[in-house]
Design goal:
Number of helices: 5
Distance between the termini: 11 Å
Shape: globular
Strand content: 25-35%
Largest sheet: 7 strands, mixed
Strand order of the largest sheet: 2-1-3-4-12-11-10
Number of strands: 12
Order of helices and strands: EHEEHHEHEEEEEEEEH
Radius of gyration: 15 Å
Length: 205
Amino acid sequence: MTATSSPSTPAAPVVGVLALQGDVREHLAALTAVGAEARPVRRPEELDGVHGLVLPGGESTTISKLAAAFGLLEPLRARVRDGLPVYGSCAGMIMLADKILDPRSGQETIGGIDMIVRRNAFGRQNESFEAAVELDGVSGGPVHGVFIRAPWVESLGAGATALARHEGHPVAVRQGNLLATAFHPELTGDHRVHALFTEMVRRAD
């Protein structure tokens, strides 16, 4: 029985956070706050013990190169193909895209969401901003979006759905068991996005 099948997913699912670079501690804390058993993932064999995975914000090129160096890229792609629920924030959104419009040399993605993303689309570090984001599937009013060197979605394929937009661009997307946001909910203390993802993990087939 696979880790992603509903009968084997407990009330407190095990959700890993790819711990190569980025906001790892913040995601671990947010997942724990919404009832998941959160653990860092650094090696391919650690993927076998999780029901879901978070790809944190950070630097997408660095995460891509480290994932390749640690032998994680192909195992991650395989788990995504097998239906593992994965949530990516900011750099994690880029990692889940099937295509990057402006990749750095040698940059690879895990893929899985039929979308094209643009890196640093909202500007560089000094142009970071915060905004209220209306997010489909999350009740209780807008979520507080922290956009730091954030990407946006240039185009979506037929299989992907935009859950939120900012300035006309999709900034939250879902495709099956995959969820991605251009912003960083792990930095706000508002755990509703992590609660949404944890519920996706519980319901995964």
